[in-house]
Amino acid sequence: MSGLAPRLGRNPEATYRQVDLAGRTATADAHGLVDLLYEELGRALAASAAAIRAGNLAVKSEKIARAVAILFALEAGLDFERGGPVAKTLAGVYRGARKQILDASLSLDPRPFQEVAANMAEIAAAWRQLRGAA
Fold it and tell me: Strand, helix or coil at 121?
């Protein structure tokens, strides 16, 4: 236990977010998990852009990897049988976003990450609106 305390104290904000996310994940239904993925995707992309502006390439790489993993998770969660053309379209959007992120990862321009974040925020808002109507 003594080895855990020093690690938790290094970044209290990150620790809080991790605990908060774990708690929300444990109680969320499948649709709620999608909301959380969109939220975390937005955070990862914003952090990637901020890391570029700050010149912190290690954080940039870490957050890009997180964003790509989240996009894979979103695509893996699509139900192609029930979702039909919408699921196929979303799969293409997620693949395109991953490509844009990976292409942008080779540069030091934060704009592509901001663009992907804005596009995914629109999809997330539509998802929440549909979820609220259900």
Answer: helix
